[in-house]
Amino acid sequence: MKSGKYTNLSEINVTSLVDVTLVLLIVFMITAPLLRSGMQVELPQTVAKEIDPGKAIMLTVAKNGDLYWDKEKINLQVLRERLVKRKVSNRLKPILLQGDKEVFYGHVIGVMDLLKELEIAKIGLVLKPRQR
């Protein structure tokens, strides 16, 4: 038999943990700006500052007049039901409304009228910053 002293290793090797954590951090830093909810539309331009879309409900009126909740196509009745349900349960986030610049004006006003009827005050309009 071998005679020798075995000692316990009381240190934790954190090298691989740090490696994995840094890789995940880099992945999230690269993908976070690319994540944007809502449908792709051509927005009118303005000089206003940007609003964080992650902290709001994104409503989109597409060029053909279709209404989207983030990327899910809905109608005004479904929008009404969802907003009432969220308002009653106090889970209503601010609403960002974006409409294609070529959409019929009445479609956007119809959504805004519904929001006013439900007494929702936290509404923002999404616009494209004007090029200088």
Number of domains: 1
| Amount of helix | 25-40%
Shape: elongated
- Strand-residue fraction? 15-25%
Could you name the CATH topology? Nucleotidyltransferase, domain 5
CATH architecture: 2-Layer Sandwich
Main CATH class: Alpha Beta
**Going across the major beta sheet, what is the strand order?**
4-3-2-5-6
Look at the structure and give the mean pLDDT: 81
The gyration radius over C-alpha positions equals 24 Å
Count, helices: 3
Task: List the main descriptive attributes of the protein structure presented here.
alpha/beta; 7 strands; two-stranded parallel sheet; single chain; five-stranded mixed beta sheet; 33% helix; Nucleotidyltransferase, domain 5; 132 residues
Protein topology:
Elements: H1 15-31, E1 45-46, E2 57-61, E3 67-69, E4 72-74, H2 76-88, E5 95-99, H3 105-117, E6 123-125, E7 128-129
Parallel strand pairs: 1-7, 2-5, 5-6
Antiparallel strand pairs: 2-3, 3-4
